[in-house]
Design a protein that fits this description.
single chain, Rossmann fold, 19% strand
């Protein structure tokens, strides 16, 4: 299913490597963080954890029961218990440039992402959101600190080792769907397995396409699908290898409100029903409200978080973070 099975179930995934990842410095349009006029089209999630508003320690989360035929949850990778950290950032710092022209994208970030949870990452333009995702996902190396996927330290790996890790243990979904137009939906989904030399079972493609509601579109090509359907194919492709963590960078940025809600509901179900771990960067308070926790960044530092977020609470926090820092505070 969406979650991880036994260790032997791991198959190769296709993750962006250093030569194909998005431009780390591509800015997103500065959003207007006015409180939204509507709430997301989903019911409250009773399994969202609560906690102090500014506590950045890892919390224990008990996901919804697994819905497979044997009514049991897949074992966590490497023998870790569900709810233990899937990803940890310890003192992570990242700068671009040098001297007086240096841009400090991240400044000593400490954060744990528990397994089986949905975490949204938000912050004003230039706060370090994209750099955070790229460092956490092994797409870029921090200058200081370390990033751990389970017990494996990404900061000690060379590029070949990182590429292998991204293909075997991580899933990626970006704003651009990145589907190959000449391939059918089924072949796009199975591409990660084929490129890794693994057996690309059509049964597995049917399984994940059924999960995203597109099992009857397997023979179509991307151009024959809507934008929302293409993004659902991209999610199926990311999950076909049962990754430890799925990283999503503005996955609904190119979608209309209704279609975005469908995609976000799908991601929410992947966590609640199958114990998937999702980390999503977004600028949209409504999208963030689908998560268990919203982590806020400002000027490369952690700036608080919200458990069980609502669109209004997220928007209010973003407004506060977007306010200019008083000169007296800057001096301090």
């Amino acid at each position: 299913m969406f979650g991880r099975g036994k260790r032997g179930d791991r198959r190769a995934n296709v993750g962006p490597d250093a030569s194909s990842r998005p431009d780390l410095h591509t800015p997103h349009p500065a959003p207007q963080y006015a409180p939204p006029l509507h709430t997301p089209n989903h019911a409250p999630h009773p399994h969202r954890p609560g906690g102090p508003d500014d506590d950045f320690t890892a919390f224990t989360h008990t996901p919804a029961p697994f819905t497979a035929a044997d009514n049991s949850r897949p074992a966590a990778p490497h023998g870790h218990a569900v709810g233990s950290p899937a990803v940890r950032l310890e003192g992570v710092g990242k700068s671009y440039g040098s001297g007086s022209d240096a841009v400090h994208a991240l400044r000593g970030v400490d954060l744990a992402i528990p397994r089986g949870t949905f975490t949204a990452v938000m912050g004003p333009s230039g706060s370090g959101k994209s750099t955070f995702l790229h460092c956490a996902a092994g797409l870029d190396k921090p200058d200081t600190g370390r990033v751990l996927l389970g017990d494996d330290d990404l900061t000690t790996m060379n590029e070949n080792e990182l590429t292998k890790l991204r293909r075997t243990r991580l899933g990626f979904v970006f704003q651009a769907f990145n589907l190959l137009p000449s391939l059918t939906v089924e072949k796009n989904v199975l591409l990660p397995l084929r490129l890794a030399g693994e057996r690309a079972e059509r049964r597995r493609a049917t399984e994940v396409l059924s999960m995203v509601g597109l099992h009857d579109h397997a023979r179509r090509r991307p151009a024959q699908l809507s934008g929302g359907q293409q993004q659902r194919v991209a999610i199926a492709r990311a999950l076909v290898t049962r990754p430890d963590v799925l990283f999503a960078d503005e996955p609904t940025g190119a979608l209309d409100t209704t279609t975005a809600s469908e995609v976000l509901t799908l991601l929410r179900r992947a966590v609640d029903d199958t114990g998937a771990t999702i980390v999503m960067v977004t600028h949209d308070p409504v999208a963030a409200s689908y998560a268990d926790r919203v982590v806020f960044l400002a000027a490369g530092r952690l700036a608080g978080h919200l458990h069980s977020p609502t669109p209004e609470a997220v928007a209010a926090r973003m407004v506060a973070l977007s306010q200019p820092v008083p000169s007296q505070s800057r001096a301090a």
